[in-house]
Amino acid sequence: MPDGALTQTMVMPGTTPDVPANPAPAPLALTVPAIPPAAVKPGVTTIPIGADAVVKAEMKKFTFHSPEEERRYNLAAGKFPGFCHDWERMLRDRETNSLAHLIWVTHGGIESTTYTGYGQIDSCETKESVEGVPIGKLSYMEMIYDLEGKTPEQARQAPPKILHQTHTLEIFSWDKNKWFY
Q1: Which tops the pLDDT comparison, 109 or 131?
Q2: Residue 123 near residue 139, CB atoms below 8 Å
Q3: Which backbone phi and psi does 117 adopt, to 5 degrees?
Q4: Do the strands 110-128 and 178-180 form a parallel or antiparallel pair, or are they unpaired?
Q5: Which pTM value belongs to this model?
């Protein structure tokens, strides 16, 4: 095209293009001062009324492989809070057992011992694995405590000192209608 002019043509299928032998020169352009575009405010995105159920149904197709897997997951998810409660009770029992069986060491006239303690369950949630298996996750703090005193009895009366603490994440699987650990 002469002088860098652009031409747009459109040819319908089954016809021949109608191209003039000498294209007309491009019209003169008027120079208009640039006007900045108006500020665009983002619109609020909403789901149309009634579409919420459709969206949820489509999401279920990606989440669950079959109605049986969904039923199994719902059963497992319903039982996991009770499992978390039982797990927390077992952690308390374990800490109590550790305190009942302390092994004392004497250094420079001071009796000392360490034991493991546990915090409350921070989170208790279920998810479905890629294979469709319900997975349970719970987390809590685990602390290593130190007790010191001139005697074991005196050390037991002193507040324990935290030597180390770890955030613990436990992962459990569901099989045969129960959570396994």
Answers
A1: 109
A2: yes
A3: -120, 165
A4: unpaired
A5: 0.62
